[in-house]
Here is the input.
Amino acid sequence: MGSAAQAAVYLNKDLISVSVGAGTSPGSFNNTFSGGQTIDKVIDAPSATAEEIHSQTTHIYFTADQAGGGLELKFDFNQEYDISTLHFWNYDSEGFDVDNVDFTFFNGANTQVGMLSVMPALGASPAIVAQDIVLAAPLNVRYVTAFLTGSNRQVDFQNIGFTANVSAPPSGAIPEPATWAMMILGFGAVGSTIRRRRLAGA
Ligand SMILES: [Ca+2]
Ligand SMILES: [Ca+2]
Here is the structure.
């Protein structure tokens, strides 16, 4: 097996997808989707160092009805990556910025492989650049759930991004047929456990 590390890549809409999760609390998206805009605004930064000027066409702005409510985002990386840095472009004033993000990381079999809570820094003004948060190596991540909240119910930010390397394939290469069967069974069991937890916590 070659051991040469592949170059880290910045994961944006060219490589990953994002959707609004069913765990999003009751609330309003304000002008976020005005004029046919989509949630892809979360992942449209061309690079980890890109600047973005805040406007109604570049930001994501959610207001929860109740304190503690927030916006849930579900990322799908399409394959497993080892994440090294998280990038967060926050709004520039306390009255609307994101105050906390709970990240949960899952591998390609939808098994949880890590969690992280982040209190992101305020963005700059007028050009917002990312706060870079070095992660303690969540490995083999395909799916990420992010739950964003503001202490005053306001959630306004520009982008979320990830710098990562494609995960190495499992050593030993091709699984035996019996292993595949176990993986499929395991997937079903994990999926139902997660759904039960989610319902219990709702
Ligand atoms: Ca954006
Ligand atoms: Ca705030």
User: Anything to note?
Assistant: Residues 172-202 form one domain.
